[in-house]
Amino acid sequence: AQTVTQSQPEMSVQEAETVTLSCTYDTSESDYYLFWYKQPPSRQMILVIRQEAYKQQNATENRFSVNFQKAAKSFSLKISDSQLGDAAMYFCALSSNTGKLIFGQGTTLQVKP
Amino acid sequence: GAGVSQTPSNKVTEKGKYVELRCDPISGHTALYWYRQSLGQGPEFLIYFQGTGAADDSGLPNDRFFAVRPEGSVSTLKIQRTERGDSAVYLCASSQYGGRGTKNIQYFGAGTRLSVL
Predict the structure, then answer these.
(1) pLDDT given at position B53
(2) Scanning every residue of chain A, which has its alpha carbon at the shortest distance from the alpha carbon of B55?
(3) FRET label pair with B99: which of A57, B46, B48, B92, CA 20 to 30 Å apart?
């Protein structure tokens, strides 16, 4: 079975500072994809960043980057220069062979001005 | 519209009633997914359509839940004899091709919040 675990229910960061959200996963597949989604109070999931497991290079998207450790099955998200608009719930997700997403429990990020 | 549209945004019903939730995917997307998100949890997969057919319905919790996509575009999630435990946000997502890979970026709607009293 494929699982995704987010061990931080809540995180807090000062505006303009850097924060890292943790995620571990388990899968028996060799080819898979990992995602971070952001869910603001509007409920709509927004894709933040994605990583192909066969790529060794960590993905980056502007202020967002990941630390992908394949052997450790770890996929953390780093947010640099945090902004008030980054406050939301963040979900780590693993894509199965049908494309369905397996989500973690989520981390609520609070950004303090 | 440009995004995934879900209607209604909120639905309140009584225990035992029948409900239908609608999802209108991004035009041209062949794959459509339904997820259920309970309060404070991550979304859980329900069913995946590739075109008109259900390619994976392993997430449907029981036979009270059923979904259709008759013309390969709009999908309807149907719940019979609703129970209080069915209360959740039901999310729909679509992607261009489905399956695994970078082309399977899933775009989500804002969901339908179902409350069963």
Answers:
(1) 92
(2) A98
(3) A57
